[in-house]
Design a protein that fits this description.
16 strands, 4-stranded antiparallel sheet, 872 residues, 7-stranded mixed sheet, 40 helices, alpha+beta
C-alpha cells in the first residue's frame, strides 16, 4: 500500500524505514479511486493512520516498532524500525517444494504467538496475518508487519465471560464487521493470498475477536510445516469453500517428519469453530513451547536460571563454556557453601519455594516439579521430629511465591530456593537455605550430574539438603531416599515437568502442556505409575476447567492404571479419591484415601481427603480421629491443629475449635491464619468484642478475605451493620468469586437497610453458587446456601427446589436443618420454619446462636420459638 525508503534519522544517527503513501493510485490498481493521488482517498489514508496508531501502541520485540507519523510536502509517512532479512513468504518460497524444518517452524511460531499475545492483550487484533506480513530478521527474530487492517477492540476479556455460552466472547468485543471489500481494496494484487488466510468468521463478514488471528496464524504454520497452503484454490470461491467447509489433510500426514504435537497444535488453531480453537495466543505459545521441549534432548548452550536466590533474580542466557560457569558459581557462592549449621533454628519449619523462569515455561515446570518431588521426600522425614516441612500442595493452593509470603502464611523460619543450569549433557542444581527471619543465607550447595543420571539427582539434592538441616537419617529413611519409581531418566524428566505444570492447573495452557509431557513420559516408560497418576489428575483438571464430561473417563482410567501398576504408591489412590470426592461418591473417596494414608503416613493430602470424605458421609467421629492421627505423627506442626480446629468449628464444637486455634497461634505466631480462625470462632461463641483483636492482628500481618469476613461477622453480631458491610466489601474485592462472601455482604446490606444493594449482592452470590454446582451437583452445603440466597431474593420456587436437592444429597446435618428453617422463615412459612428449627436443635444446633440470629428476630415473641429454646 506504499513506498518504503531506507533513511537516516540525522538527529539520533540511526537507520530507519520511511513508509510513504504512493503518489498515484497505480500501486492500488486503476479504477479504485476517482482521484489521482491515493492520499486523497479517505479509506487509504485512514488505513495508513490506523497502521501507525496500532503499531505505535505496542512495544514488543516481535512487532515492528513505529517511531512517528508525520507529513512531508503534503504526503503522510510513517518512520519505523529498519528491518533486514526476509518475510516468511520468502522463506516458504525458498524451501519449496519442501517444508521448513520443524525446529524453525517452532522457533518462529513461538515468537509470533508471543507477539500476537502482546497485541491482543492491548485490545488490538491484526486481521491480516499472512506470510507476507511476517518478517524474520537476519538474526532470526520474527516480526509482525502491517497493522493497516488492525482494529482496536478494547482490553482483553475472558474467553467465556458474560455467561452467554462458550462463544459469547465473540460479540463481547463489540468489533465492527469487517467486509471482504475492505480486504480486497487494501491489496487487490494479492486478494487471493489474503483470502487464503482468512478465518471462517472473517470470510462470512461476522464480528471478530482475537481468535481470528489465531486461525490465520494456523494457516501460516500449516504452510510453513508442509510447504502447502491449507486452503488452496485457483478461484476465490474455491478458497472460500475450503475455509468454510473443508478440513485440510493433517500436517503430520503431509509431512511425516513433523512432531505429532506440532501437527496437533496446527489442527487446533485451524478449527472452524472458534470456541474449539486456542482461546488465546498465550495458550498456543505454551503448546508450541511444550512441543519444542519434548523434542529438544541435547541443548547446545548454558542457560543459567536463578529463582529468587540472593545472588540473582533474573534469567541469563550465556554463550560461554562450562569453565566460565564454574567460575561464576564459585564467585556467587563465596561465603555460603559449607556454612555452619549453628545458625539453624532449634525447631526448623521449612518451605521449598516455587521455581521461576519467566522466559522458559518448560524449564520453570521442570524446576517446580523437582521442587515438589524434593518437598515430598522431605515431608516423609518429618514424622516424630520437630523438623517440619510445608507440603507443596499448601504452597500451591495459597499461591505463595516468596519467602516473606511463606512466613506470613505458614510461620516458617527457613526457606529453600533452587536454581537450575543446563549444559550440553549436564544438569546442575544449586540450592540455598535461607533464614526467613532476616533473609540471611545459612548454607548453599550445587550438584552437577549428567542428564542421563537424572534419577539420582533428586536423591543427591535431598541428601545435601538433609545434611545442611542437620538431620540424621534412620536406616529405613536412607533406603527410602534411594527408592525408584522408574529407571528411565528421560521419562522422569518429563514427569517432573508435568508435575510442575499442574502446580498452576487453573491455566488451561498448563494443563495441555502437562498432558503433552506426561504422555511423553509414559511412551518412554509405559509402567511409570506416578506419571499415570499425574495424567489422571491432569485430565480431571481439564474436566473442571471445561466442564466437558468426556474428560472424566480418561481421568479415571489413568488413575486406575496407576494403581494397577503397583508402583504409584499413595498418589494413585489419592488420584482415585480426588475423582470420587469430586463426583460426590464419598464412600469410594474414603476407601481410596484410607489406602493412601496406609501407604504414606505423612501425606497431608491423603489425611485431609479422608477426613473430608468421612465428614461428607456424616461420620464426624471418624473424621476427628483422622485429624488427630495426623497431629500425633507431627505434634509440632501447626497445620494439623488448624485443620482439626476447622473441623470442630463445622461441627459447632466451638470451645474445642478455639483450643486448636490457640495452639496454632502458639506454634505459628507470625502466621495470620491462626488469628483469623481464632477470631472467627470467637464470633461463633458470641464473643464478638473479644474477636476484634485477633482479627485485626491477622489483617495487620496480611489482609485476607477470610479475616475481613470474620471481622464483618463480629460487627454484624454487634449490630454495627455499616461496619460489617465495609469489611464485607473488602472481602469481595480480594475474592470476587466467593459466593459465601457475596452472600455475607448481602446480609450486611439487608439488615443495614440498604435493600437494593442487598439484592444485587444476593444475585451475585446465587450466580456464583450455581456456577460452583457444576463441579459437584451433590454439595449439600452449597445447595443450602443457594436456597438461602434465592429466599432472600423472593424466589420461593428456586429456593425450595435447591433446598430439596440439598436435603436429598445425604443425611441432613444440623447446619442443613437450620438453613431449612431460615429459608422457610424468610418465605413467610413460620410453622414449617419452626418444625425445621426443632429438628436442628434436636440434632445439636447451639441455642444461643439461634436466639441471636437476626434472620429469626421475627420469631422472638412466638411462644413455640420460646419453648424450643427453653427445651434445649
Amino acid at each position: 500500500m506504499g513506498v518504503v525508503y531506507k533513511a537516516e534519522d540525522v538527529r539520533l544517527g540511526r537507520q530507519v524505514a520511511l513508509k510513504f503513501l504512493p503518489e498515484s493510485d497505480t500501486a492500488l490498481g486503476s479504477g479504485l479511486s476517482g482521484s489521482s493521488t491515493s492520499s486523497s482517498r479517505p479509506d487509504v489514508l485512514e488505513r495508513f493512520r490506523r497502521e501507525a496508531r496500532a503499531a505505535s501502541a505496542l512495544n514488543h520485540p516481535g512487532i515492528c516498532t513505529v517511531y512517528e507519523i508525520d507529513e512531508h510536502e503534503g504526503r503522510p509517512f510513517i518512520a519505523m524500525e529498519l528491518l533486514e532479512g526476509r518475510t516468511v513468504r520468502d522463506l516458504i518460497t525458498a524451501a519449496a517444494p519442501s517444508a521448513l524444518a520443524a525446529s524453525q517452524v517452532l522457533d518462529l511460531g513461538i515468537q509470533i504467538a508471543d507477539a500476537l499475545d502482546a497485541a491482543h492483550s492491548k485490545g488490538i487484533i491484526h486481521r491480516d496475518i499472512k506470510p507476507a506480513n511476517l518478517f524474520v530478521t537476519e538474526r532470526g527474530q520474527a516480526k509482525i508487519l502491517d497493522f493497516g487492517l488492525a482494529k482496536r477492540t478494547g482490553p482483553r476479556v475472558p474467553a467465556y465471560s458474560g455467561g452467554g455460552g462458550p462463544d459469547s466472547s465473540a460479540s463481547s468485543h463489540d468489533t465492527p464487521t469487517l467486509t471482504l471489500d475492505e480486504v480486497y481494496v487494501t491489496s487487490p494484487g494479492s486478494a487471493l493470498g489474503t483470502m487464503a488466510y482468512m478465518s471462517p468468521e472473517q470470510a462470512l463478514a461476522e464480528s471478530l475477536d482475537e481468535r481470528t488471528d489465531l486461525f490465520s496464524f494456523g494457516a501460516v504454520l500449516y504452510e510453513m510445516a508442509t510447504g502447502r497452503r491449507a486452503f488452496p484454490g485457483v478461484t476465490m470461491a474455491a478458497v472460500a469453500n475450503g475455509i468454510l467447509s473443508l478440513d485440510p489433510p493433517p500436517p503430520g500426514e503431509v509431512n511425516p517428519r513433523l512432531p505429532s504435537g506440532l501437527s496437533a497444535a496446527i489442527q487446533k488453531a485451524l478449527d472452524k469453530r472458534r470456541e474449539n480453537r486456542y482461546q488465546t495466543a498465550a495458550e498456543l505459545r505454551s503448546h508450541l513451547l511444550a512441543v519444542r521441549t519434548a523434542g529438544s534432548r541435547t541443548p547446545k548452550r548454558w542457560g543459567w536460571v536463578v529463582a529468587g536466590v540472593a545472588m540473582a533474580a533474573a534469567v541469563f542466557i550465556m554463550i560461554v563454556g562450562a569453565p566460565r560457569i564454574e567460575q561464576l558459581l564459585k564467585s556467587a557462592l563465596t561465603g555460603m557453601t559449607g556454612a555452619s549449621r549453628s545458625g539453624l533454628p532449634s525447631e526448623a519449619s521449612l518451605a521449598v519455594l516455587p521455581f521461576k523462569a519467566p522466559n522458559d515455561p518448560s524449564l520453570e515446570a521442570f524446576g517446580n516439579g523437582l521442587a515438589e518431588a524434593l518437598t515430598a521426600r522431605l515431608v516423609q522425614l518429618t514424622a516424630n521430629r520437630s523438623f517440619q516441612v510445608v507440603p507443596a500442595s499448601e504452597i500451591r493452593d495459597r499461591s505463595v511465591a516468596t519467602l516473606d509470603q511463606a512466613r506470613q502464611e505458614f510461620s516458617v523460619n527457613l526457606g529453600l530456593k533452587l536454581s537450575l543450569e543446563r549444559a550440553e549433557k549436564l544438569l546442575r542444581v544449586t540450592y540455598t537455605l535461607i533464614d526467613a527471619r532476616n533473609g540471611r543465607a545459612l548454607a548453599a550447595d550445587s550438584i552437577t550430574l549428567p542428564e542421563s543420571d537424572l534419577l539420582s539427582l533428586e536423591d543427591r539434592v535431598v541428601e545435601s539438603a538433609v545434611h545442611s538441616l542437620g538431620i540424621e537419617l534412620r536406616p529405613e529413611e536412607q533406603r527410602a531416599i534411594g527408592s525408584r519409581d522408574t529407571f528411565t531418566s528421560a521419562a522422569y524428566e518429563y514427569y517432573l515437568q508435568g508435575a510442575g505444570y499442574l502446580q498452576e492447573a487453573f491455566k488451561p495452557e498448563n494443563v495441555e502442556s502437562a498432558l503433552t509431557v506426561l504422555d511423553q513420559a509414559l511412551k518412554l516408560d509405559p509402567q511409570f505409575g506416578l506419571a499415570e497418576a499425574a495424567m489422571g489428575e491432569a485430565y480431571w483438571q481439564k474436566y473442571t476447567l471445561t466442564q466437558d464430561q468426556r474428560w472424566i473417563e480418561p481421568a479415571r482410567a489413568a488413575c486406575n492404571r496407576a494403581v494397577q501398576m503397583g508402583n504409584a504408591g499413595a498418589e494413585g489412590h489419592e488420584c482415585l479419591g480426588m475423582l470420587a470426592s469430586g463426583a460426590g461418591d464419598y464412600a469410594e473417596a474414603a476407601a481410596q484415601f484410607q489406602i493412601a494414608v496406609q501407604l504414606d503416613p505423612t501425606s497431608d493430602r491423603a489425611y485431609e481427603g479422608l477426613a473430608e470424605a468421612y465428614q461428607n458421609l456424616n461420620r464426624p467421629g471418624d473424621s476427628e480421629k483422622t485429624y488427630q492421627r495426623a497431629i500425633s505423627l507431627r505434634p509440632q506442626y501447626w497445620l494439623g491443629y488448624n485443620r482439626l480446629g476447622v473441623f470442630y468449628a463445622t461441627e459447632q464444637e466451638y470451645d474445642k475449635a478455639a483450643q486448636m486455634f490457640q495452639e496454632v497461634v502458639a506454634l505459628a505466631p507470625v502466621s495470620y491464619r491462626g488469628y483469623a480462625n481464632l477470631g472467627g470462632v470467637d464470633v461463633l461463641l458470641n464473643r464478638n468484642a473479644e474477636a476484634l483483636d485477633p482479627l485485626q492482628r491477622s489483617l495487620a500481618i496480611r489482609p485476607t478475605a477470610q479475616a475481613y469476613s470474620n471481622l464483618a461477622s463480629a460487627y454484624f453480631q454487634l449490630g454495627r451493620f455499616d461496619r460489617a458491610a465495609s469489611n464485607d466489601e473488602q472481602a469481595v474485592k480480594l475474592e470476587p468469586h466467593g459466593y459465601v462472601l457475596w452472600g455475607n455482604l448481602g446480609e450486611a446490606y439487608y439488615y443495614g437497610g440498604h435493600r437494593s444493594e442487598a439484592f444485587g449482592a444476593y444475585r451475585q452470590a446465587a450466580a456464583l453458587a450455581e456456577e460452583a454446582l457444576k463441579v459437584n451437583p451433590k454439595d449439600a452445603g452449597l445447595l443450602a446456601a443457594l436456597a438461602g440466597y434465592y429466599s432472600m431474593l423472593g424466589s420461593g420456587g428456586q429456593a425450595l427446589a435447591a433446598l430439596d436437592q440439598a436435603l436429598a444429597a445425604g443425611q441432613p446435618d444440623k447446619d442443613l436443618l437450620f438453613n431449612a428453617a431460615l429459608v422457610y422463615n424468610q418465605l413467610g412459612q413460620t410453622s414449617v420454619a419452626l418444625e425445621w428449627l426443632a429438628k436442628a436443635l434436636a440434632a445439636g444446633y447451639t441455642p444461643s446462636v439461634v436466639s441471636q440470629a437476626p434472620a429469626l428476630s421475627n420469631l422472638h415473641d412466638n411462644p413455640r420459638f420460646q419453648r424450643l429454646l427453653q427445651q434445649h
